[in-house]
Amino acid sequence: MFDLKYHKDYFAGSRDELCAKIQQSVSTKRYQHILGVEQAAVQLAQENNVDVEKASIAGLVHDYAKERSTEEFKRVIKKKHLDPDLLKWNNFIWHGVVGAEIIADELKIDDEEILNAVRRHTVGSAVMTQLDKVVYVADFIEKGRVFPDVDFARTIAFNNLDQAVAFETKHTLQYLLAANKTIYPAAIETYNRWVVAVN
Amino acid sequence: MFDLKYHKDYFAGSRDELCAKIQQSVSTKRYQHILGVEQAAVQLAQENNVDVEKASIAGLVHDYAKERSTEEFKRVIKKKHLDPDLLKWNNFIWHGVVGAEIIADELKIDDEEILNAVRRHTVGSAVMTQLDKVVYVADFIEKGRVFPDVDFARTIAFNNLDQAVAFETKHTLQYLLAANKTIYPAAIETYNRWVVAVN
């Protein structure tokens, strides 16, 4: 574990206090994944001149709302007047874009860069900041992930962040297609921007 | 070639007269493709209780505007007040959805079922009529098409039209992804409806 001190007031407390709140919101298994994402995000932030404290917080909170109920997500979509089209989707989509609202409310985090990184961590976006990319890629390559190309993905991630975004986006879409699984249309905007434009 | 007589006034003239107009609008090579699509569309229409005259006309006109210039398509998008988002795209997308407007104006075809089949022949749609499916699939399997899975695609097409829509949609997306080519977001709506829901 790291011993990262928070100084910038993105969160009103220490890293340990933030971790304690997250641990209350998710299962043990997901908490281990979250710590892995934070660690990878901090490393990628250091490599790419991104604010390490933001990377730590965004990594820690990215799945904060993942285990909330369908009812809770739908309630938040309506209460916050989010795009009603969201109601047609599911936890996979909601825990990022709706999760950011839950994080803002419960953890009192209002930094829009951190919240956007949470919003965009699931399917990316045509517009992504360096912090967004760090969290998106960290979620894919954290040390607990096991899939055939993961070592290759890790190598790319620490070599070229944009190429890692492209690799992850294409890899995920190919997996979804092969398995006949639903693709969220915004994932195609990520693909058109970061895969087509890069290659 | 067939000798199909038109009786229903979807087009104000004979099939030969329609063919003559199409021949003036496209290259010889594309005209051969168009005749192949018409033939496949008529056969698929017969198998699926779809109006054969509509299938013939939709097959013949589906690529009528394919060789028009970027300038012409942009002019039509503005003049007809089509979705301005279309301006960001290209001939591949325009020749269906904008092409339908050019067909309506120049060939005086106003049957919305025929025009919708033209609009939807390129990337499909979440909502597709039987005629839409017939033209979408005919374009994929017509006798001039050559690609590794084309015989398999033809077998599916004459066995189950919905499965053929699913096969074509998935096959095309897999090709585009592997080649890092742009994917039009509406193609994902087709995939989510006809591939994910079917499998």
Structural class of chain A: mainly alpha
- Name the assembly state: homodimer
Instruction: Report how far the terminal alpha carbons of chain A are from each other.
Output: 37 Å
* Main β sheet profile of chain A: none
Give me the strand/helix succession of chain A. HHHHHHHHHHH
Count all strands of chain A and give the number: 0
Low-pLDDT runs of 5+ residues of chain A are none
Q: Could you describe the 3D structure shown?
A:
Two copies of one chain form a homodimer. Chain A has helices spanning 15-25, 28-47, 52-61, 70-79, 91-97, 99-107, 112-119, 130-141, 150-157, 161-178, 185-196. The longest helix of chain A is centred in the N-terminal third of the chain and has 20 residues, at 28-47. The first copy, chain A, has 199 residues and is mostly helical. The first copy, chain A, has eleven helices and no strands. Chain A is globular, with a radius of gyration of 16 Å. The model of chain A has no long low-confidence stretch (mean pLDDT 96). Chain A binds chain B through residues 170, 173-174, 177-178, 180-183, 185, 187-189, 191-192, 195-196, 199, and chain B through 170, 173-174, 177-178, 180-185, 187-189, 191-192, 195-196, 199.
Task: Based on the model shown, name its key terms.
mainly alpha; 199 residues; homodimer
